[in-house]
Amino acid sequence: LGPAWALRLRTTASTGHRLLSPGRRQATGRFEAVARHAAPTAAARVAVGGAPTWFWSTCAMIFTALTVQYWPVLRPRRRRLPRGSTGWPMLLGHSLHLLGDIGGWLRSMHAKYGPAFRCSFFGTHVVVVDADVYDRSFSKLDSTARFVPLWPTGFQKLLGPNALQFLDGGSGSRGARHRRLKRKVLDALSPVELRRFLPRMQAIMRQEFDEMVRETEVHGHSCLMPHAMRIVKQVILELVLGAGGIRPDEYLRDTSKDLLDGMIAAPIDLGRFSAYGRAMAVRRAYQRDVEEQLAASLKRLVEQAQAEEPTAETRTMLSRLAEDCQHGAGLTIPEMQDMLISLLFGGSLTTAETMQWLLVELCRHKDWLSALTNEHQRLAGAVGGVAASWDAPEGGRSPCPKSLAACYETLRLHCPIDVLLRSVEEPVDLGDGLGTVPAGWWVAVHLTERGLRQGLDFDPGRWERRSPGLEVSAFGLGPHSCVGRQLALWELQMFLHVWLTGYQAEVLSEETYFVTGMKRFRDGLPVRMHRLPSPSY
User: Fold this and answer.
1) Residue 516, helix vs strand vs coil
2) In this predicted structure, what is the pLDDT of residue 42?
3) Between 133 and which of 129, 148, 319, 440 could a Cys-Cys bridge form, CB atoms 3.0 to 4.6 Å apart?
4) Is 440 left (phi over 0), alpha (psi -120 to 50) or beta?
5) DSSP one-letter code for 95
6) Burial code of 269-293, b = ≥16 C-beta within 10 A, e = fewer?
7) Smallest Cα–Cα separation from 516: which of 257, 229, 184?
8) Which residues of the chain are under the pLDDT cut of 70?
9) Whether the Cβ atoms of residue 528 and residue 222 lie closer than 8 Å to each other
10) Is 79 within 8 Å of 435 (Cβ atoms)?
11) How far apart are CA 487 and CA 347, in angstroms?
């Protein structure tokens, strides 16, 4: 590249020599004569002012980088682009904000530029819009599979090609596969199916709380984060594979850091020597055991069918997904493997993180802690226990409206995922004079901005007599909304029930840090956990 650019510059200089004034032409001629007769001091020198090749190569690369970054913005257009900036030059743009408080930076940009603004990450131009602009300008495209999901390459390979996050959603032939897989998973995770699992979910959580009490007695403190991760993973694994289908020593260790690091790492699999390789090792372990458990589950179904009709209590989610139904054929083994990994990853990012913030917020606000404690003590004394009183995790049939409101408020303030990344296949007018997104550009939907307009104070009372469907955006928007919403809300409320009816928690440190744009508690949220003198469970 360097010699080619040097030759081009040299040719241009000699051609333009005739256009110079006589005085300048004479000076330039003397300079070129010296350059022609001077012997090159090294093979890396080029006959353009004696400049080395690396100099022109560097100039060419800088010119290319600046062209890539600024030409899509500066070139003439018939339609105005959204307001914004390109950030730092040399393809850096605003990329450094991905390492810190990305949510705080997005809110500051909204305050400066409005509900839609333009930014740049690693040379790629992105238009960030809030949920209101999404509803007005993109929801229809999303419902017809023309708002294409975008994820890092390593993340796509990590979750697998059958993950719902990566498939085109909405109506039409492009969204057919996404609709089939999503309906099958929603059926398997319906409130009717999940309600049977509530007693086991309660036992799993009580086991982890007892372990935190034991750690507090031995070491003087415990950490909530690893236990929240174990709760989420064990609930999902037992739902999918059955109680005897997991190996706790392998599955229940904390793999969240491996998965988070592998999500944005370069897709180079070097085993334990690379972040992506460590994440892929977690995936391969899940793949292997899903295949084994599917074979064992199908064998049990055949044996039960020969003897008697299998009962619903003996069926796992895996066996239900493998069956044909009105929504289509049963899931294949690769589809089940990718589904399980997606549920585990999503649960680690949303439910486990929200459990920690829920405990911290309630420990900060003693009035709400007291109100929720009374609510769950009444539920514990109901005839038949929790399972008999709980028909659905949300809505008018929830026996714990204050606890549900506390979950909504925690998700509003501490949404684990700030943005959803998509691309558009056609120009999109944002309306209200906000500009037009060109075809092929990326669009980031800012999920948390609409909720945070209501303030930064923790007040679950704001959810009384309000529908959370449109305002709780932590589970996504449009056809790609999270299939595990009902499961996550039931886990959060069961977490509150077990904690408030049997244990007392003291938060020792609320120090936080940012990793991959996520705000997490340092040292896994140190707490002291004690049993209540007279538990009500």
Assistant:
1) coil
2) 44
3) 129
4) left
5) G
6) eeeeebbbbbbbebbeebbebbeeb
7) 257
8) 1-51, 68-69, 74-78, 90, 244-257, 264, 289-290, 293-294, 297-298, 300-302, 304-315, 383-385, 387, 395-397, 465, 467-471, 536-537
9) yes
10) yes
11) 9
Residue 482: phi and psi, rounded to 5, are: -65, 130
Q: What is the pLDDT of residue 56?
A: 77
pLDDT of residue 111: 93
SS3 state at 126: strand
Measured between alpha carbons, how far is 319 from 301 in angstroms, rounded to an integer? Answer: 8
Residue whose entry in the numeric block shows the structure tokens 């026996």 = 399
Q: What angle do CA 469, 518, 416 make, to 5 degrees?
A: 15
The position carrying tokens 């850091």 is: 257
pTM over cut 0.90 = no
* pLDDT value of residue 193: 84
Tokens coding 233: 């993973």
Indicate the length of the chain as a whole number: 537
Whole-angstrom Cα distance, residue 527 to residue 506? 5
For 36-75, letters b (16+ CB in 10 Å) and e give eeeeeeeeebbebeebbbebbbebbeeeeeeeebeebeee
